[in-house]
Amino acid sequence: MISFIAMLEKMFEERVIRLNHKPEDIEGSYVLYCMEASQREDFNHALEFSIYKANSLKKPVLVAFFITDKYKFSNQRYYRFMIEGILKTKERIESRGIKFLILKDDFVNGSLKLSKNACLVVFDRNYLKTQRAWRRKVSDLCDVATYEVESDVLVPVEYLYQKSVPYAYLYRNALEKVLDRFLVEVDTLQPEIKSNDLDFNFENQLNFDNVEDFINSLNIDKSVKSVENFYKGGSDEAYRLLKDFIERKLPFYKEKRNDPTTDYTSNLSPYLHFGQISPLKVVLEVFKSYDREDENVKSFINELVVWRELSRNFCWYNPYYNQYEGIPTWAKETLENHVSDKREYIYSLQELEDAKTHDEYWNAAQKELIITGKIHNYMRMYWAKKLIEWTEHPKKAFDIACYLNDKYALDGRDPNGYGGISWCFGSFDRPWQERKIFGKVRYMSDKSLAKKFDVKNYLRRFVK
Ligand SMILES: Cc1cc2nc3c(=O)[nH]c(=O)nc-3n(C[C@H](O)[C@H](O)[C@H](O)COP(=O)(O)OP(=O)(O)OC[C@H]3O[C@@H](n4cnc5c(N)ncnc54)[C@H](O)[C@@H]3O)c2cc1C
Fold first, then answer.
1. What is the pLDDT of residues 137-193, one digit of tens each?
2. For domain 235-273+278-317, which CATH number applies: 2.170.16.10, 3.60.20.20, 1.25.40.80, 1.10.3470.10?
3. Residue with the nearest Cα to atom 22 of ligand 1?
4. Using a 6 Å cutoff on CB, does residue 442 contact ligand 1?
5. What values do phi and psi take at 322, rounded to 5?
6. 49: closest CA among 148, 116, 136, 125?
7. Which fold has domain 324-462?
8. pLDDT for res 463
9. How far apart are CA 182 and CA 155, in angstroms?
């Protein structure tokens, strides 16, 4: 029989790294988990690792979540979705006897203040530059040991490759060989010492049960409206969508996932982005109901695991992942050879943002983004590709794609977004037949939309 310790080691295997070499302080009052990327109570390796460490030190766990209105992308749309989720997560974590503080502070300041009385600090993992820098800064400036625990992918990126991988097939081949080893349930540990009653009298502590009051207390951009009629935040909603996907949509996924007039994808990307559901849990649930060799399952795993984790590999190893400079050399060269090609239309950022182009399909995709907070994957490719055609330089097109996607997409500001936009500019792809403006970068036309699906039907949904 597998021992308890061996079981824990298996659960955390390859997922935990030390971010500094400072000692754990056994005189500290608690083990601190600064939650950021994995905003959930279940299937959260960082939370379970915190409990495991706290139990071995005979200390309680304190979980902290920091909210600032100074973040570049603080707007009503994201914050509503995130707060809907975090209030539930707080309730669940507190029901396990663990104090959960929501503090109005930035991540670095807030973590540093709480680290002063901590034995050690635990972070979850985020693959983006800014959030990585926050963790590094806290690790450098605080006095105790810091750990980072991966809970955002099935196979930790460094385990698979120590460099950026240029093609999905390479990632897929490597993943397939090791996947089973990482298909390990995340056990729920109980804290031996409860922390609910610990007294933290911070001025900047936020205590709200009500999402509206919470949002109103923050000085955020309220011009990007919330989209709760389309996506409601929180793990419960993520599980409802997952159940519906498994029961009703997955049997048709391969055939219908590229048709934006039907609704046969999971719609889980906003929940995965905020860490409200674990991708590992999603895969284990799918495997409970279907054969792994089923074509629809393979197609879904190809998106959720291969492409999603390849995007994380891209952001981890390519410092220019959110810039035009990060696309492959052949793609930059070919695009630049065609910079002086005549463009029939050039649009300003404002015209694009307002969906005022001559192309009704593109306008519909932009309206889908503004109205619902998400564009269907197939239209997303078309949407980004057209920016290359309608701006003076592909660098400008790249920046506009990131700006609009990060500002309006609920799942934006995510490695998938930077990977997806870069794909439209040639990353992870091969050269195609040369043509004007795009050079050898793959082109998409409105005619190709009409061949794939009933594009007029798509228009009816988003063009009033
Ligand atoms: C220009 C462009 C921008 C994009 N921006 C984002 C973004 O900001 N955030 C985001 O999560 N995805 C982005 N994608 C990828 C993809 O469009 C979305 O993940 C997908 O449409 C989400 O819908 P879903 O959850 O119903 O997907 P499903 O088809 O149900 O797929 C399940 C999950 O797999 C992952 N996935 C699916 N397709 C991809 C892909 N191509 N690359 C990486 N992961 C994928 C997502 O996590 C998704 O939730 C972008 C793609 C392009 C071409």
1. 999 999 999 999 999 999 999 999 999 999 999 999 999 999 999 999 999 999 999
2. 1.25.40.80
3. 269
4. no
5. -105, 25
6. 148
7. DNA Cyclobutane Dipyrimidine Photolyase, subunit A; domain 3 (1.10.579)
8. 67
9. 6
Contacts of 130 (CB under 8 A, 6+ apart): none
Residues 75 and 224: beta-carbon distance below 8 Å? yes
User: pLDDT-based confidence at 462, cuts 50/70/90?
Assistant: confident
Q: Is 303 in the pocket of ligand 1 (CB under 6 A)?
A: yes
| Separation of alpha carbons 66 and 111, rounded Å | 8
Q: Which two tokens stand for residue 186?
A: 């995340």
> Is the CB of residue 149 below 6 angstroms from any atom belonging to ligand 1?
no
Q: Closest Cα to residue 220, out of 380, 358, 403, 68?
A: 68
Tokens of 232: 């409601």
Band (pLDDT 50/70/90 cuts) for residue 28 is: very high
Tell me the residue length of the chain: 464
Cα 271 vs. chain centroid, distance in angstroms?
8
Contact 328, 426 (CB under 8 A): yes
Q: How far is the CA of 92 from the centre of ligand 1 (A)?
A: 28
* Token pair belonging to 114: 């709480």
| Residue 182 near residue 155, CB atoms below 8 Å | yes
Domain regions of the chain by residue span: 4-151, 235-273+278-317, 324-462
For β-strands 30-35 and 99-104, DSSP reports them as unpaired
Burial of 219 (0-12, 13-18, 19+ CB in 10 A): exposed
Place of tokens 């597998």: 2
156 alpha carbon – ligand 1 mean position (Å) = 19
Environment class of 106 (CB within 10 Å of its CB; exposed 0-12, middle 13-18, buried 19+): middle
Given a contact cutoff of 8 angstroms between Cβ atoms, the answer to whether 450 and 440 are in contact is no
Cα separation of 118 and 212, whole Å? 33
- Dist. CA 133–CA 391, nearest whole Å: 32
Please tell me the pTM assigned to this model.
Answer: 0.97
